[in-house]
Every structure is written in structure tokens, then in C-alpha cells.
Specification:
By secondary structure, the chain is an all-alpha fold. It contains 16 helices and no strands.
Length: 394
């Protein structure tokens, strides 16, 4: 791998990692924060919802703006205000301002996620895009491995605020890196009229194939974020493990997510992406069904973790192949297309997170049902909108 490609991969990987870092690093502190703010589990889980909503709405602005202004300026602005919003989280003494800053954190952090995807499309295409995006997912996969373990150990020496201090430092470093990063979208490749850039959303959603990819990501990420929101209470409250042990379990599953990202790299150019996507969705249904059974029977912890390993790591495979399939036909509207994909995946997380805790801190059934329902709906969207196009073309 040449030096320039490696630098891009690391930089874009860190930008894309803002989302899992902003969500995963403070997960071990969620049970502690219920006491710190004097609220219930569902209210604290709303902090995940606010972040996801911010990450869903942010791309709708970041995408069109980056297609019009280029990638660099919106990225620098987004990273700067991400840092400020994270400082706001540190300084919050009440749940209401904390939720507000979490929304702003998600909104501004989305500029990094959208830019990372759009730059990948600027630089590569076809099977090379799939390979590079898979490598990006591998770098990105380090975040869910390290974040909860770091968060859990921060709790040994500091309060939950220490987690957000570290996130603020990361935001400052990415702001500086963004200032020195080169522009990847040429003047001729930009959309002249910003209004036209926003109008691309309507054009994209009229495309049944692209709409199908959005729905696949919406439902699958709803299942994924049900796991993200529910896992601290599942492992710590129901199975009684410590925040540090939870961090290692969550990190181990995150390592599997990262390793699964090798699959689309190996298969790119050999097995069509749509076939990999189909297999991934069918496997996710099997894994989520076994997880539901494990929750209903209060299975031993190793069996519960094994069932999760059958579904959660697939997010890196689905993320790579679905994104590649959705973006192949996008040129000047790559930023808007990336924004819509980001919107559907993140808004799914925002909707799923508070539903996980509706039955209380000692019941994992809502989490398991949301995961299974999301995987089933994702496969139905694939079968309805995506599979017919490949039958006709291939």
C-alpha cells in the first residue's frame, strides 16, 4: 500500500470513527449516568437518540454543501464545532443541556462521516471503491474495539465527564488535520447551485434501487443500534458484570466487526457485491433469531455472546457492499448520496435507542425483538427493491 493511500485511509478512518467513538466510548458510563443525572434508563438512552438524530440530520446539510463548496471547508467547520459541542457535554450539569449538546455533537460529527465517504468516492470507483471502503471500515472498526475499553478504564480514575474530555481532544486534532488535508473535489466537479444540490435528494429517492439501499441500511442499523443502546444494561444489569468487563466484551465483539471487514476486500472483483449483501442479510436473520432465543431462556453468557457474534460483525460487511452498490452510479451528487445513506442509518439508531429501555433496565426482550425485526425488514427491502435489478442486469 503506497504512503498516500495509507494516509488517506487513516485520516478518513478517523473521521468515520467519530460516530462510533461518540456513541461507544461512554456506553460503560450509562448506568452511572442514570444516578448522576437522577433520571431513568430510557431518559439516559435518549442521549444516544439525540446523537443519532444529529448524525441523521447533519448529513442532509453536509452532503449538498460539500458537493457545492468542496470537501475541505465544510469538514473544517464541522470538526471545529464538534469540538465545541463536546466541551458543552463536559460542562453539562443537567440532562436537558446534555441532550442538546449531544444533538449538536452528532450534527457536527456527521460532517466527518459524510466527507469520509464522499472523498472515497472522489478517489476511487468500482471494485477499487469496495476495497478502499472495506479498508476504511477496518480502520473504523478499531473504534468500537477500543472505545468502550477506554471509557471503562476512564471511569476508574474519573467521572463520566472524562470520556468527553478525551473526545474533545480528538475533535481538536481532527480539526487541525482537516486544515492541512488537500481538497479532492475539483471546481469542475462541483454543483454550481446550492439549491440544486439540495434538490438532488428528491432525484435520488425516486431511484428505486438507491431507495432500496437506504431502506436496507435503515432497518439493519436499527438492529445494530438496538444492540449498542441495550448492551450496557444487558451485560451489567442482567448478567451483573463490571463496566470494565463490559468494555472488554464489547471490544471483543468490535474486534469481530473489524475482522469481518476483510470479507468484502477478499471478495471484491470475485463475487458480485449484491450476492454478498444477500448472504449477509440472511445470516443476520439467523443470528438475531438465536439471540432472541438466548434472551428468552437466559442462556449462559458465552452462548449469548456467540449469538451476538453471528449478527453484529456483519455490519462492516453490509456497510461496505451496500455503500459501494449505492454509490457506483453517483458522480457529482456523491455528497448528497452519501448524506442520504448516512441519514437513514443514523435516524434508525435514534429511533431504536429509546425503545430498548421501555421494559426497564432488567429486560432485554425489546432489544432482541428490535434486532430481529430490523434484520427481517432489511432483507425484505433487499428482495423488493434491489434483487430484481440484479436479475435484470446480470
Amino acid at each position: 500500500m503506497d504512503k498516500i493511500r495509507l494516509l488517506w485511509m487513516v485520516f478518513l478512518g478517523m473521521l468515520a470513527a467519530l460516530a462510533p467513538l461518540a456513541t461507544d466510548m461512554y456506553l460503560p458510563a450509562l448506568p452511572v449516568m442514570t444516578a448522576a443525572f437522577g433520571v431513568g434508563a430510557s431518559t439516559v438512552q435518549l442521549s444516544l437518540t439525540m446523537t443519532m438524530i444529529g448524525m441523521a440530520v447533519g448529513p442532509l446539510f453536509a452532503g449538498p454543501i460539500s458537493d457545492h463548496w468542496g470537501r475541505k471547508r465544510p469538514l473544517c467547520i464541522g470538526m471545529f464545532f464538534f469540538s465545541l459541542a463536546t466541551v458543552g457535554c463536559v460542562m453539562s450539569d443537567d440532562i436537558v443541556p446534555f441532550l442538546t449538546f449531544r444533538f449538536l455533537q452528532g450534527f457536527t460529527g456527521a460532517f466527518g462521516l459524510v466527507t469520509a465517504r464522499a472523498v472515497a468516492r472522489d478517489l476511487y470507483e468500482g471494485a477499487e471503491l469496495t476495497r478502499f471502503f472495506s479498508l476504511l471500515m477496518l480502520v473504523n472498526g478499531l473504534a468500537p474495539i477500543l472505545a468502550p475499553m477506554i471509557g471503562g478504564h476512564i471511569l476508574l480514575v474519573a467521572s463520566w465527564r472524562g470520556v468527553f474530555v478525551l473526545l474533545a481532544i480528538l475533535g481538536v486534532l481532527l480539526t487541525i488535520a482537516s486544515v492541512f488535508a488537500p481538497e479532492t473535489l475539483s471546481e469542475t466537479g462541483r454543483i454550481d447551485d446550492l439549491t440544486e444540490s439540495f434538490q438532488k435528494f428528491g432525484h435520488l429517492m425516486k431511484d428505486a434501487y438507491f431507495r432500496g439501499q437506504c431502506l436496507v441500511q435503515f432497518f439493519f442499523f436499527a438492529a445494530f443500534f438496538a444492540y449498542i443502546a441495550g448492551s450496557p444494561f444487558l451485560f451489567q444489569n442482567i448478567y451483573g458484570i463490571s463496566p470494565q468487563a463490559y468494555g472488554f466484551i464489547f471490544g471483543g465483539i468490535g474486534a469481530a466487526v473489524s475482522l469481518a471487514g476483510v470479507l468484502p476486500i477478499r471478495l471484491a472483483g470475485w463475487v458480485p457485491d449484491h450476492k454478498v449483501l444477500s448472504w449477509t442479510l440472511r445470516q443476520s436473520i439467523v443470528g438475531s433469531l438465536l439471540f432472541l432465543i438466548a434472551c428468552c431462556t437466559k442462556a449462559p453468557l458465552p452462548l449469548l455472546i456467540l449469538s451476538l457474534l453471528m449478527v453484529i460483525p456483519l455490519v462492516s460487511v453490509l456497510g461496505a457492499v451496500s455503500f459501494s452498490l449505492a454509490m457506483k452510479a453517483q458522480g457529482k451528487q456523491a455528497g448528497s448520496a452519501s448524506a442520504l445513506l448516512g441519514f437513514f442509518s443514523m435516524v434508525a439508531g435514534g429511533l431504536a435507542a429509546p425503545l430498548v429501555g421501555i421494559a426497564g433496565e432488567e429486560n432485554a426482550l425489546p432489544m432482541a425483538l428490535l434486532m430481529l425485526t430490523g434484520c427481517l425488514a432489511a432483507y425484505a427491502s433487499y428482495a423488493r427493491c434491489i434483487a430484481p435489478a440484479h436479475r435484470n442486469i446480470f
